[in-house]
Design a protein that fits this description.
Blueprint lengths: L6 H18 L14 E4 L5 E7 L6 H17 L3 E2 L2 E9 L4 H12 L4 E6 L3 H13 L4 E3 L9 E2 L2 E2 L7 E3 L7 H12 L4 E6 L3 H17 L2 E7 L8 H10 L3 E3 L6 H10 L8 E5 L5 H7 L7 E5 L6 H14 L7 H19 E3 L5 E4 H9 L2 E2 L7 E2 L11 E5 L6 H7 L1 E5 L4
Parallel strand pairs: 2-4, 2-5, 5-6, 6-9, 10-11, 10-12, 12-13, 13-14
Antiparallel strand pairs: 1-16, 3-4, 7-8, 14-19, 15-16, 17-18, 19-20
Helix pairs in contact: 1-3, 1-4, 2-11, 3-4, 5-6, 11-12
Length: 421
């Protein structure tokens, strides 16, 4: 999510791994692989390996854990098997750091038996990991990345777009405009300050808010950046106060988002400023950490999936498997992501008469690109040319009662935004 580290070294290693892909498999083959990106070749009885790249440590760990659980639930529906073979997960933790995403991808692409990658949790990790995996000819599907920079902006290829990357989380290109429309039209705000942490996710949201707000006639009076793990938010909050902003939009993660809110509550001159963040803080842990300080705060986030019988069934399976109810619905996006990946693997695979199995890497990308699944739990899933597979719809929520928790917050919808097509 910060500036991409060691990109040249990562791409060199990815290129070296790519060169080894066809040569490293010792499984018997009836005929040479004709796929332009090479093949995963498995001998009789060999399991199908999926590389998993998620954030399983730090503040974002609960979201990363639910991404893994969404994948596990999708596999459980299939008895843990695909194409008659056991599916094994090779899991790497990124810690929600771009260098973690790059290192995890490098480890996984070095194994020519890994059929595809699942992840990441954080968009900054994906920017590096997707570049590495794409150069190596892999495909990767995420159930959580939402930064516009990864796929498309304004109907055009985004700066960090990579071939072979797909996602089932909505492109948050519309998140900033949703917040801006609500602030300008419903709250009457005309002067706004935006705060990001410099990574492609938070910067994309504040840029989108600023552009839409200014088009509506509002004025951005401050654009500020804080650092990851900053504890003292005094300087940036003083700048917000001096800017005479009516609203502060800070789409930050924990703990930075917590620190901004709690310290703003104690800053003289900011008593009446409107506070707004995004889905990264629509978390029970955030509400428990800040309590009454968040009363009246607004959040913009993807509209949750409808609670259909199919979703209620998945909730029951989640509770039975993990002994607890899901705290958010992000695992549902992961479940959908896992299913389109597993479906595509089935379509891309060919079986040999000697019990071998071959999965073409370009064939897998092509199968993912043809995804047209009208019955996804998050809604219809149709992958476009940029890798976006989910429709876009965003809610503005208001926290009125911390005791009601995240469920109460998600029910308190103030505004729903659907971008015009």
């Amino acid at each position: 999510m910060r500036a991409l580290p060691r990109t040249a070294a990562l791409l060199w290693a990815a290129a070296m791994a790519t060169c080894l892909l066809p040569a490293c498999s010792d499984a018997p083959e009836a005929k040479p692989c004709s796929d332009p990106l090479g093949c995963v070749s498995l001998g009789p009885g060999e399991p199908i390996l999926l590389g998993v790249i998620e954030s399983l440590s730090g503040q974002v760990a609960p979201i990363g854990q639910d991404q893994v659980r969404g994948l596990e639930l999708a596999l459980a529906r299939r008895g843990g098997k695909l194409l008659g073979r056991e599916v094994r997960l090779v899991i790497e933790d990124t810690g929600c750091r771009p260098e973690g995403g790059g290192n995890a991808a490098l480890k996984l692409i070095a194994n020519p038996k890994i059929a595809a990658l699942f992840g990441t949790t954080c968009s900054g990790d994906a920017a590096v990991a997707s570049e590495v995996m794409s150069k190596a000819g892999f495909a990767m599907v995420s159930g959580n990345n939402s930064a516009p920079f990864l796929t498309a902006i304004g109907g055009r290829k985004a700066p960090k777009w990579q071939a072979g990357y797909f996602r089932t989380a909505p492109n948050e290109e519309s998140s900033g405009p949703a917040a801006a429309r609500f602030a300008y039209s419903r709250l009457g705000v005309r002067r706004a300050a935006v705060i990001n942490d410099g990574d492609i996710y938070t910067r994309g949201l504040t840029d989108g808010f600023a552009q839409a707000f200014q088009r509506l006639g509002g004025k951005i009076v401050l654009t500020a950046t804080v650092n990851k793990n900053d504890a003292d938010m005094g300087p940036v909050l003083t700048a917000v106060k001096n800017s005479k902003a009516q609203l502060m939009f800070f789409p930050l993660f924990q703990p930075e988002g917590n620190n901004v809110l709690l310290q703003a509550r104690k800053t003289r001159g900011l008593e009446r400023i409107v506070r707004m963040s995004d889905g990264a803080l629509i978390e029970q842990s955030f509400i428990e950490a800040v309590g009454d300080a968040a009363v009246g705060m607004y959040f913009v986030g993807p509209t949750p999936p409808a609670r259909t019988p199919a979703l209620r069934r998945l909730e029951q399976e989640y509770a039975a498997k993990y002994g607890a109810s899901p705290s958010t619905y992000y695992y549902v996006n992961a479940f959908d992501a896992a299913n389109i990946l597993l479906d595509a693997l089935e379509k891309a695979a060919t079986a040999g008469g000697d019990g071998t199995l071959r999965i073409g890497r370009q064939a897998l990308r092509d199968a993912l690109a043809r995804t047209d699944k009208p019955d996804g739990l998050t809604g219809p899933l149709r992958c476009d040319e940029f890798g976006d597979c989910a429709s876009q719809c965003f809610n503005i929520l208001r926290l009125s009662d911390p005791a009601a928790g995240v469920d109460g917050l998600k029910k308190n919808v103030q505004f729903t935004y659907r971008p015009e097509r």
